[in-house]
Amino acid sequence: MKNLSSSQIRAMYLDFFKQHGHTIEPSASLVPKDDPSLLWINSGVATMKKYFDGSVVPKNHRLTSSQKSIRTNDIENVGKTARHHTLFEMLGNFSVGDYFKKEAITWAFELLTSSDWFGWDKDKLYMTVYPKDTDAKKYWEAAGVAPDHLIDMDDNFWDIGQGPSGPDTEVFYDRGPEHDDLKPDDPENYPGGENERYLEVWNIVFSQFNHKPDDTYEPLPRKNIDTGMGLERVTSIFQNAPTNFETDLFLPIIHKTEEFSNNKKYGVNDQDDVDFKIIADHARAITFAIGDGALPSNVGRGYVIRRLIRRAIVSGHRLGIEKDFLYKLVPIVGEIMKSYYPEVLEQKDYLAKVIHSEEKRFNETLSDGLDLLNNLLDGLKESDDKVVSGKDAFKLYDTYGFPLEMTREYLNDEGYSVDEDGFKSEMQKQKDRARNARGDKKSMGVQRDLLIEIKTPSKYVGYDQLSVPDAKLLDIIVNEKLVDSVDKGIAEFIFDKTPFYAEMGGQVADQGIIKDANGDICAKVTDVQNAPNGQNLHTVEVLKPMNKNNSYSLDVDRHFHSKVEKNHTATHLLDQSLRNILGDHTQQAGSLVEPNYLRFDFTHFGSVTEDDLNKVEELVNEQIFKELPVNTVETDQENGKKMGAIALFDNKYGDKVRVVSAGDFSVEFCGGNHVKNTNELGLFKITSESGVGAGVRRIEAVTSGDAFKYLNNEENILKQIAINTKTNKLEEVPNRINQLQEEIKELQQKQETLETKIANQQADSVFENVQNAGNLKVITGVLKVSGMGQLRQLADTWRNKNLSDVLVLGTSIKGKANLIVAVSDDQVKAGIKAGDLIKAISSEINGGGGGRPNLAQAGGSNPEGLAKAMDAAIEWLQKL
Fold it and tell me: Which parts of this chain are annotated as the region Disordered (predicted)?
């Protein structure tokens, strides 16, 4: 067996397929772009959907990649098994309608067994195949696999519902009898079974069918290959590691964690090993996830990151690590991955800052969570119950980050348990909510074969001209069929040349009209999109008969286009201004360029202060007032990068790229439309800034005439405020408002003082009316006070004066009823609980409530029932 590092294995795999005509696709961001069906990129094929569903035709139909991926469906198993990970790398080779089974299998066997490549012993390899897939068996045997190393598996059929599907074949490596964890006659002791001896290393999917809505299968017009090989597993074989964690991908992180721990060492104690593995795995995942723009939060991807950080910190506590440590592992992760992911080390300071901030916050939360847990235990001790409810356990998990196993362990030490079924029920409810929030989105579309077949060349000329007098109509599509003519209705057109911009990069498509040779309007262009082979596909409303191969005049709506241009250039100025003011860590996370406004999403840790927002706006306007020339140069990617151009997202730019520069201030790769000089924007005004997701902020803004309208409207509002506050000058409005607020505050204080005085006067009368209920002294009364706050104040007065055993007070506020029950400390010890009494009487006001044994409160919708509630309290106490 060769002794290869993980970096060498990755490079060898990619180089092998490059030599077989594949283009190496770079590892895409973990945050999916334009794919609402995914929370994370979870496989290599997830980044290839646009090719497989036919929405984009790749320049090379043979592709290969090493794609970082995240899967979070079984986080609880990470650290407890040999191969579960949240972050992993998936090596893959893909054929988009090019080669199929024979080539895929032949090359797979060559890579695995050739001495020039992996050089594995073929006798240690076993392949599972779909029983009906006789071709796969035939090609494996032809490659050199013995028949008794081919195993039929009914499960070897890749199917995710409607869409592409097909049989697959899996490759297993026999690690030898020393890895047997089952008896020889165990039914799971075979390649493909649940065991530690036979390790699955590669899955090759033959995507050849379309799973239709009626659950029938039809052949795909183009058959595809999709494969996945886990780098971590393959590395464990080359490095003869018992588990994935004893490889060069994880051990440096584990050894660094040992330095932080309380003299704990990996490989000595099973529970300690679990914690070391959790930390190593989660440190990698959060480093890459945050590096790709996701940030800790309580929703979506941010919730996953927060959960991983907290789980790792809890593991650190179990290892005796009392101080913040997780952020110190970022450089270790960066060193391990630097050969293929140099950006981790480049961002290490920012990544460490984000993680460290979350660590400090959780250490505070950890204390709060323990307080809640202790309060729950106090309640159980009083009720003689021995089980914490699933709802409370889930609150500890969801709000305070306590993993269920941590809550269980803590409770067991105190002689209590947790309702785990109830916890799982609450967890399922949350998953259902998350699933519903993502919507019913298809995970992969079905190929639109007609558009893939259309390869007629079409040229976009809209950078230089907005009217084309002689555009030839090459293709007409109506109801997914090519036709020679169309009389009216909706159709799709492809011309030999067009001035209409196809929607891309956040910029909306152009609109306009189409005229015939007589100058008559025969169609309206309502939308333009990119066809799979790169043509601009026009969606049109046909008004008069139009024929294929005829020439027409294409006219873009110039006013619409001009406003879009201004806003697009403004996004470039805004992007650079955000980097200058907030830091280089900000990345564009999305944009929308409409004629009337622009929307710009960007990654940023924390909110943007009003001061920084003003600085950003001022910096953009400064570039506008400088009248910077906006130039566009067409070049190749390498020269574009030398020019300092910023590549937004992880777009796959072509061989030729357009570099748009606004003076020396902003330089970006961009295929959109822009003004000739920044002075055309006139003015830039931010209208809103908000958070829209985990670590993603959104700015909305306007330019030119829309900016003037916005500011004019703001001024009119300010003038109206001046009139309402009787202020003569606009600049005096802030001081006048501050003055009015102070007056209001003084009046409120006077009102509260009067209300308290009135309440005390009422209380004096009520407190004198002590009733007997059995052996108990009780005070009840319905008062006219301002709310529950004053009822609690009266309860404090009652307790300080020791006026009776039990107090029951009520009040009515704006059609709502409030009740409060207080019990003296002596009677609490005797077994009387305020919470029990409040529950017994709150039905009289159509409400409910609860609280501590010595104080409880309730609210309801029936104020007329307050008197009955007082009577019910006396009756309940008399029965004790």
Answer: 171-192, 422-442
d(C-alpha 842, C-alpha 782), whole Å: 14
Contact between 783 and 763 under an 8 Å Cβ cutoff? The reply is yes
Q: DSSP 3-state assignment of 494? A: strand
3-state secondary structure at position 806: strand
Which segments of the chain belong to CATH 3.30.930.10?
6-249
Calpha distance 489→862 (Å, rounded): 61
Fold topology of 6-249: BirA Bifunctional Protein; domain 2 (3.30.930)
The region, left, alpha or beta by phi > 0 then psi within -120 to 50, assigned to residue 503 is beta
Domain 561-716: which CATH class?
alpha beta
For helices 866-878 and 834-841, what crossing angle results, to 10°? 130
Helix, coil or strand: residue 525: strand
* Strand-pair partners of 130: none
Kindly report, residue by residue over 295-334, the tens digit of the pLDDT.
Answer: 887 778 888 898 899 889 988 988 989 889 999 999 999 9
Which residues make up the CATH 3.30.980.10 domain(s) of the chain? 561-716
**pLDDT tens digit sequence for 146-196:** 999 999 999 999 887 777 789 999 999 999 998 888 888 898 889 988 888
**Four-point Cα dihedral 681, 683, 688, 694, nearest 10:** 50
Best mean pLDDT range from 69-73, 111-115, 479-483, 809-813: 111-115
CATH number of 457-556: 3.10.20.10, 3.20.20.80, 2.40.30.130, 2.60.40.3140? 2.40.30.130
Report the candidate in 338, 337, 312 with the shortest Cα–Cα distance to residue 257: 312
Segment of 142-151, 449-458, 789-798 carrying the highest mean pLDDT: 142-151
Domain boundaries for CATH 3.10.310.40 within the chain: 758-878
Q: Output the pTM of the full model.
A: 0.69
Give, in order, the Cα–Cα distances in Å from 696 to each of 130, 390, 636, 676, 687: 44, 33, 31, 31, 17
Identity (one letter) of the amino acid at 803?
Answer: L
Helices (H), 20-100: 49-52
Element (H, E) at 449: helix 449-453
Q: Is 585 annotated as a binding residue?
A: no
Model pLDDT, residue 562: 96
Question: CA–CA separation, 692 vs 696, rounded Å?
Answer: 6
Other Cβ atoms closer than 10 A to 192: 18
List where CATH 2.40.30.130 sits in the chain. Answer: 457-556
Vertex 142, ends 138 and 146: CA angle to 5°? 85
User: What are 340-352's pLDDT values in tens digits?
Assistant: 999 999 999 989 9
**CATH fold group of domain 758-878:** Diaminopimelate Epimerase; Chain A, domain 1 (3.10.310)
Tell me: is residue 568 an annotated ligand-binding position: yes
Determine if residue 572 is labeled as part of a ligand binding site.
yes
Instruction: Evaluate the CA torsion angle 98, 101, 104, 106 in order and state its sign.
Output: negative
Q: What is the pLDDT of residues 533-589, one digit of tens each?
A: 889 999 999 999 999 999 999 999 999 999 999 999 999 999 999 999 998 888 888
Determine whether the annotation assigns residue 211 to a binding site.
no
CB atoms within 10 A of CB 433: 9
Structure tokens belonging to residue 419: 């309702």
Interacting residues of 745 by C-beta distance below 8 A, sequence separation 6+: none
